[in-house]
């Protein structure tokens, strides 16, 4: 695999792995809220969940994803 193809591919893999980790943390917070959260913790948990949802959304629509995909497509087309 050529170096110009490796860089955007590794960037994409890293980006999606980090996003998946955030999604897993969000799911754990949601599960904990349903199962064990004391009633006094609801407001703070809502803030945590909303914050993570925003971060995850921004990562999913990050314009850099388009750039990496175009770089990868261009590198693949050269082969």
Write structural notes for this entry:
The protein is an all-alpha fold and 79 residues long. 86% of the residues lie in helices and 0% in strands. The protein contains three helices and no strands. The protein has helices spanning 3-35, 42-60, 63-78. The termini are close together. The model has no long low-confidence stretch (mean pLDDT 91).
Uncertain segments: none
What pattern of helices and strands is seen along the backbone?
HHH
Mean of pLDDT? 91
Largest sheet: none
The portion of residues forming beta strands comes to under 5%
Percent range of helical residues: over 70%
Question: Measured on Cα atoms, how large is the radius of gyration?
Answer: 18 Å
Count of DSSP-assigned helices? 3
Structural class, by secondary structure, is mainly alpha
Q: What sort of overall outline do the alpha carbons produce when their principal axes are compared?
A: elongated
Distance between the termini: 10 Å
- Compute the number of strand runs: 0
